[in-house]
UniProtKB/TrEMBL annotation:
Residues 141-187 form the DUF3108 domain. Keywords: Signal. This is DUF3108 domain-containing protein. Residues 1-20 form the signal peptide. It comes from the Bacteria.
Amino acid sequence: MVRSLVALLVVTALIGLAPAAPVPKHLMPEEPLYHPVKKGTRWVYTDNDIERVYEIADVKPAKHGGSIVTVEAVTNTGRVLEEKLEVSPRGLVRLEHLGAPAASPVRLLRCPVQADKEWPFRTDRAVPNGPYIQGTMTATGPEDVTVPAGTFSAIRVELKATLFMGDTPVSDINVTSWYAPNVGTVKYTSTGGFKRELKSFTPGKG
């Protein structure tokens, strides 16, 4: 009787230690997109109390999966290209900013998010021996962030970098960005007291 009871306890313990069967790939939760991919999506931000409006003007399939999203700034005098992003379950990559294509695209967010894992980045020089920025980014979260548009569960990305003029370090730069699934940037703060907060968000229908 005692031996049978011991054997049962051992079997039960072994079952508890056995690895769980793998979840079929089609049942695994998909990594969310941390930026919208529908044409017509519109954000209204306050930049230190100055209102800015941005809208997705175009969406095209990316070569290796995901989407190439073109965002324009909407002004009183028309529209101006703000940036082009590659949006995919792998994260966010900036391909172009303010009309200047990036020879070395900048990864703004790496997914799936691995807490406290750094990745390097460097911006291009616009002219020979001109300024550039070099540093690292680190993602953590999700965490709740409250802005005028509401409260969002967002990933926080800390950027720590140095501005170089030629090859001479000039100043340190610290930037914190918060990205919410299917919304994009909901808050952004940087060295010098700059603060951007999402005031309203309208999903696109395209």
